[in-house]
Each structure stands twice: as C-alpha cells, then as structure tokens.
Amino acid sequence: MNQKIYIITLCLSFGYGVSVQDYLGCFKSPTTDFDSPLLVFNYAVTPIKCIAECKSRYFMYAALMKGEQCYCMSKYGGDGPSNGCTNPCSGDGKAFCGSHDSMSVYSTDQKGPSPPRGLEVSENKPTSLRVMWQPPDIPNGIVRSYNIRVVAVETHSTLQLFPTQIEIIGGTSDNTVLTNLQPGTKYNISIVALNAVGESEAIYVIDWTQIGPPDKPEKPKIIEKNDSTIKLRIAKGSSENGPLTAYQIVVADAGIIPPTSHDIAYTNYDKAIKNDIPYYITGEFEAAEFYKYKEFVVGNGLKIGGYYNAPLEQPFDNPQIGVVLVSKLRNEIQYSYSDLLGSEKSDNFMFNRSTGNSGFDSTIVGLCVAIALLGTLLLATVLGYFILRRRHEQIRMTKLPEQQELTLQGPMHEVDNMAYIPEDVPERPNHYQDLKSRVWSIPKNFLNVDSIPLRRGRFGTIHTGTVQDKNGAPTKVLVHCISDGKLRASEKKNMLRELDVCIKVGSMNHLAGLVGNCETPDTLYVVLELPPQNLKSRLLGARSGDLFPTEYILPIGSSIAAGLSYLEAHKVLHSHLCARSIGLTDDFVPKIMGFGIGRHSLEDMKLARWTAPERFGHKKHNPAVVWSYGVVIWEMMSMGGTPYSDLQDECDVEEAVVEKDVRLPQLRDMPDPVYEVLLSCWQNNSEERPMFDELMRLHTLSICPITAITEPYLPELELN
C-alpha cells in the first residue's frame, strides 16, 4: 500500500511539472534542529511553487507538510525515512504534501551556496584594492574558497588590461588585496563562493584605483631668448596612470634643486618673492589647450591660468625652466616634473648660442675639429700597430729552418680567426636551438590556451590550458605566452637565461618541469606542468573539512627534499620556496614549482616569513633554501598556518629572527624529533644546517595525528 502511494505521488508530481528526479522521498519531520527547516508558506501551496520559492532563496531542498506548509532547508532526513506522506496538497489535490509528522522532500537543483554578502572596497591605492566581504548566509555545506574576478571597465592606459582571476582558499576568509592593478582605472570586481559541488551567483562592486603620476615630461627647448623673456617649445605629455589634466611652466633660481615629489605643488610668483622661495609657477594651461601654448613665452608679464608670468628679473634673471604635468581625478592630484632647462652646462651653451655669442661658437667649433683630428690620428696608430704585428709574425714564420718540427705546446687559442678554437672553451649556446632539440615542440592544434590570464608575468601573460599527449589525452598545463619580438634585448636575454634553467634541469618526479614549447610567428608558448592543486590550498582545505592524512606529511617533506637536492645538483637554488610553490597531485605526490621561468607564474608573495637571517638586507645573495624548507614543514604541521602570525610587518619579522633569535614554535602535535630537525634547519650558521640528502630521511621519523589547529592563516601577511 505504501509503495502504491509513493508511486502515485511521483506520477502526480511528474504530471504537474515536477520531475521524478526532483522528488527525494518521504521523511520524518525533524524533532531537533539538525535540518533547520525554514517555513516560507503556511497556506495552500503546490510542490512547484514551493520548489521555486526555496530555489530563489538558494536552498538545496524544499519540503511540504500538513498539505499546505512549505519549508526550505539545506539538509534533510536526519530522523530517517517515513511512510506517512499521505496528505493531499491544499493547493493541488492531485499531489501529496507530507502529513502532520512527515514531509515530502524535493531537490531544488541548487548546488552552490548563496552569494557572499556586503562586498566592498575598503582601501584604494594606485596599484591595489583591498576588498572585504561577508560569507554566504546559506553555505549548503562547507564553503571552501572564493573566486574573485577583476575586469577593467575604464582606464587611461594605452595598454590592454586583461581580466584577472584569483582564488582565495578557506571559507573563513573575508578580505584580500588585489595587486598589480593599473593606477587611475575603474574596475568591476565580482566574487563567487564555492562549496564541494558548485558555486554561488556573483556579487559585484565597482571602484577606482588611485591615480599615479603622469609620465615624466621632456625638458623644454629654447627657441628664442632676450633680456626678460625666453620662448620655449614644449613637447606633448602623456599619462598612463590617470587623466592628463594640465601643464605648468615653472621657473627656478640658478643653482637651486627644487622638490620633485609627485604630491608637491609649487606656489605662484608673488608668494615666492614674499616668502623667499626660489621657484614658482609662471603659467598653467589645460591639456586640451596644448595646441595654443606648445610655444610658450616665459616672462611676458601676462596672467596664464591664474598665474603671473613675471618678467625674468632678479633674482630670476638667469633661470632654470621646467615643465610639470598635472593629473587630477576626484580629490586626487599628482604631478610629474621634467628636468630643468639651464641646470647643466649643455643648457648654458644653448642659452649663449641663442643670444648670438659667435666667439663662443667659434671656440666650440675649433675644439670639435681638434677632437676629430686627434681621434683620426689615434685610429690610424692602432691600425698601424696591428698591421706591423701581422707582418712581423709572417716574417718570423718564414725564417724557421725547413727541418724544424712544428709542435703545439698546450692549447692553441684563436688569433685573428686563423687558428683553432681551444677544447676547453665552450661553444656559445643557442638557447632557441636547445629548446627545439631537447624538449617537445608542441603542434599548435595540440595546445589550447584559456583566454583569461591568471596573472601578468615579467615576460608576458600566464594562462592555464590543456595539451594533448601523443595518445590524444588532454593534460592541464601552465602556459607562458611570450611575445618575444616585442621584448627589449635585455629582457629577452633574461628570459632565455631563465628558460635555460628549465631546459638544464630536465624532468624529475618531484619537479613541475618543462613540458614543451609551441612557436607561432608572433608568440612563443612555454608550457610547464601544472599540478591539480598546490600544497597551501590543500592544507587550507583541511581546515574546511577536506581530508589531509597526517601520515602523508613527512613523506611529502622527504620528497620535497629529494627535489631540492636534484635542483641543487644542477646548480639551481630555489628563491621562492614555500607551501604555495609546491604542487600536489591527487595522490599526494609533491611537485616543486617556481624555478627558472616558472617563478613568474607564482602568486605575488611576501617571503620575509620564509627568509633566513643572513638574507635580510642582502637580497642578491644565494637563497638559504634549507631554512625555507624547515618553514614549509612547519606549514604542513600547522595545516597552512601563517608563519609568525603574531608579527604584522616584515620589519618585525626581521627584527625577531635576526636580532632576537626568535624561531617558529613547536606545535602541540609536533613530535620532539621533528621539531629538532626544524631547529637544525634554522641554525644561524648556514654551515651547521643539514644537507638535503640528510633531510630526505625525514620520512623515517614518526608523527602523531594532528588533533588541533592552533596557528591562524592570515592571507594579508603572505600575499602582496
């Protein structure tokens, strides 16, 4: 009988627009607050209307009781199934709506949480925005992370600003700092919350970064000069960091170096004379009127933009003159100052030449001729020396006795392109040729690159993507998109050097190495391994309910030591080692990321908390990797805790580590032998720290289950 009622209920529901898949069954009404149902209707209602209402409120389940009551909830079935759903719905007599002690439960098809709340920008800076939010009201499980997308909607930059997306791990996170933004730009910032099965709808906020200073203007040029005026030609200015609002012409006393800070404005002529200030603004005009004033007469006695353009009399009868670009937006203002005309000897030459000092001109011409003659004579002398040396060598060789045996005493070095290349001098490497010969050249149709970049790196943009292996199976990868034809020579040299590190290292089980390259006429795609997650994210996920088996911690540490030992053997020292730079496969195999060109794909991190004492203040020294390795093990034992979380600033960390000899504490569940290993990694004398070959035996120690997480995770202390 009960089975017949169940089948009839399903059929009626299906007939009235609710699918069989929506109906989850009949369950006892909760006697505790386990299910936390929310009553939304207490009148004649149908299943369709109840489901729609609960979904609009972001609940995963709808339930009907007593023929007319509609409840919404995120959990159900805490008191077990029931056979009592026999009351017809008062709003639809053909469907059943539970009973006085049972509820008919339906899925709303809502997977993710409700949207986060209260998204706002709490701090604006030229290249960053701090955003804050509140967690979803209805998490529908455990909120594990937040995805934030940043899109430029209005900018003064001529560069194309790509959208960026970042992931904030941990459902308790409620703020972050968005970095590497463009000054003076309006951004649309959206955020979604994610649980284990889906994501929420997005909420948005729009705000501006603060403006930055305009581009430095060119020094003006003199067209004409007389006793009280100077006619200038002004170059057109530009600003990538905000609107270009106005131009100012400034005059300074000879020999004075006036301030050039981007937030300092000069005064007018009257105040400069009254207060004995050796510089002033002699005219200002709007950027839109540049065409009127690109030839500007200093000292003509007129008022220009509210400033008196005073005749050039004492104490400004031998002035220095400069151009100031002004950028204003809302209540912000920034200045950018050119070099001063008249502040160098070459400028004085221009001043004198414009007044017709022909004697000075003759002296300069004479000096130029003399320099040219002396240079020619020196060049002829050098050429003569090499010709005579070559002739002497030939004569000496012809005078050797015919029977004398020619022997080589040691390696023969190259002289005048006529001898041999010594065996101990390596041939100059061709990095592109190495790239083609030693790694996989990926066909373009095998590589798919996501259009939205993760971040902008030093040499180009960083994207995720997929590459097909030779069997056609797709693998997720990290792709550096490098427009190498647009790189400066120095940048291309640095790029090739860092790419060479990845080529030299090759492949190893515990490294996220180079997969291959794909070359098009415009772009070089450098493809690196991308583990499915990083160690930091996996540790923080454990705080939200994901399983991170304690027994994996020390084996992971041993494997990281093996990877670092391999890098060290190839003369590569990792400079950004922390839990964020360790990838992790689904079966908990670590993959070290962030070496060679791969370091530009890492998040913008503050690394003081992983830095050895000898490295503070000496950033160019070799990184102390063993010290950082010890901090990574501590991160794992604290399940992603922030090192030195009680110290807010990097200078506080430096003072504690260097001057007070403070070390990270022994955690409650950390065995003494493990902490002793960490303390050995944190010895002040780097010679006393263990080698990675020794640290590879870390897995031989034992570890207890972690029963409490005592160290907080504070992302603002770890990320720029």
Polypeptide structure, described:
- The protein is an alpha+beta fold.
- The chain folds into five domains: 2-107, no CATH class; 117-208, Immunoglobulins (Immunoglobulin-like, Sandwich), CATH 2.60.40; 229-354, no CATH class; 431-529, Phosphorylase Kinase, domain 1; 533-718, Orthogonal Bundle (Transferase(Phosphotransferase), domain 1).
- 25% of the residues lie in helices and 25% in strands.
- It has 15 helices and 33 strands.
- The strands form nine sheets. Strands 24, 25, 26, 27, 28, 29 and 30 form a seven-stranded mixed beta sheet that branches. The chain has a five-stranded antiparallel beta sheet with strand order 1-7-3-4-2. The chain has a four-stranded antiparallel beta sheet with strand order 11-10-13-14.
- A hairpin with a 4-residue loop joins strand 15 (221-225) and strand 16.
- Helix 7 (431-438) packs parallel to helix 8 and helix 10 (553-569) runs antiparallel to helix 11 (625-637).
- The longest helix is centred in the middle third of the chain and has 41 residues, at 358-398.
- It is globular.
- It starts with a helix and ends with a helix.
- The model is unreliable at 1-16, 348-361 and 397-428 (pLDDT under 50).
